[in-house]
Specification:
This protein folds into two domains: 175 residues, no CATH class; 303 residues, no CATH class. 45% of the residues are buried. Helix 3 packs antiparallel against helix 18, helix 5 crosses helix 6 and helix 9 runs parallel beside helix 12. It is 52% helix and 8% strand. The strands form two sheets. It has a seven-stranded parallel beta sheet with strand order 1-3-2-4-5-9-8, with helices on both faces. Strands 6-7 form a two-stranded antiparallel ribbon. The chain is of the alpha/beta class. It is built from 20 helices and nine strands.
Length: 552
Amino acid sequence: MVSFPGLLSARLRTPLSTTGLVLGSAAFLASLTPSLIPRTGAVQGGAAGLAFAAGYGIGVLLSLSWEWLGLAQLAERHRLMARHGSWVVSAILVLGGLAKARAWQETIHRALGLPAVETARPILIAATALAVAFALLLISRLFRVLMDLYAWPLRLILPKRLSLLLAMSLAAWSFWAIGNGYLMAAVLRGLDSAYRQVDALAPSNDRMPLEPWKTGSPASLISWQGLGREGRARILSLPSDDDLARLAGSEWKPPLRVYVGLNSAKTPQTRAELALTELIRIGAFERKLLVIATPTGTGWVDPAAMAPLEILHRGDLATVSVQYSYLPSWLSLLTEPDYGHETARAVFRTVYQHWHSLPKATRPRLYLFGLSLGALNSDLASDIFDIVGDPYDGAFWVGPPFPSRTWNGVQETRTGGDPWLPQARNRRTFRFFTNSDRTQLTEPDWGPMRILYLQYPSDPIVFFDRQTWRRRPAWMSSRNAPDLSPDLRWIPGVTFLQLVVDMVTATSVPKGVGHVYAASDYMAGWIALTQPQGWTDEELKVLDGWTRSQKL
């Protein structure tokens, strides 16, 4: 009779695989090579530990496959030599990687214009990697124990190899069911609860607005508390009346901002209808511009994007945003890539139908805006059948995540250019620009419906590719962009892992690189897209200086 403690004890005493040790150490070294985003010692150590565990697992599978096929095995004397040799090779690979880590990180810092790397913290990297690798190795040995428990009764009635195959399948199913069905669900519930509580917290020094045209005021249809943290921040964001008076001249209006929080109504459709009713109440359809600004996963609308637009049009516009989640965009992307689609579609259709019913001569120009997950959901909010007879005026999608529908279609059919600055087949409709190249913004013959993409080459949320584990992504096959390390290389499996880590840390960099978009680039995009009138080059420089002084 087999017992769990006995099997566990036996598996824990099993020596490490020689093939796994060498491949794991090689993966450890490869994980320290440059990617898109610079990493702290702890983050780098965690990624290195994951890489080691993945490489070790591949080595174990290769060894088991060799044994399964009944191929020749090394003699005991040679096995001992191979074991000692694997430790020597592994030590050389690990120490070599730690020695090169600082130089590799320095290439990323130089490409992004960051301060020089003082140290890569090799001890912290090694300690963190060891802890992560040990934890994953322990889990793998628990998997083998479970596999042995399944195999024991099966061997009584089935051939050895068939029983092992079935036991492996049953163990894999058990781990998947526990990990994906219970642990992941519990983690997501915990994160959702935590972010829900954060969303309910009021920003410091916030106060309910008294102006009747502001959402959350006593005259509003939407309660101040129901807006949530991000909604209240949006209503109170810059520019202030003093900023508008100083930067926009004497003829300015207070911009209209409508925000509906996740707690303001129960369903996406009722939240969309509430947003429309509030827009009508404050006279939003009497302004020159109306912007449907789809927020990010947490409900955030980047003030660096909205403030320049409101000043450029001297406040004569309205924006509307409806929250659909509390979770950060990267987490939503990894778990539910289409999260928010239902809300974005309800908001667009509800607002668009009213806008479409108005006389063309007097209604505002209609634009869509989205950053990150907001860009993905803004894109999914409508299709050609919704708007073919009466299209909206344009869309500004910034940092579009890799699953974005239209972005992928334009990339796949581009007629030239690099992946981070493609030349669209239909350049009258689609234009791209980056933090280092705005050429397409000033090209002639842009049509009446304009869709504009802003993306940074160093943004992993844009350029992540699920197939990177097995093939080189197109953007890495081209010449390197200015904000990419010249030492960036594709490594099967490892590059995929690096990009996953980069997505999680994509907002840890300064403005203007990674997934942190700068107000100056937003401003350039809005000028090209909406063509505000009456601004001189000198006034635009003053506006740009103001955004920098406000750290937008």
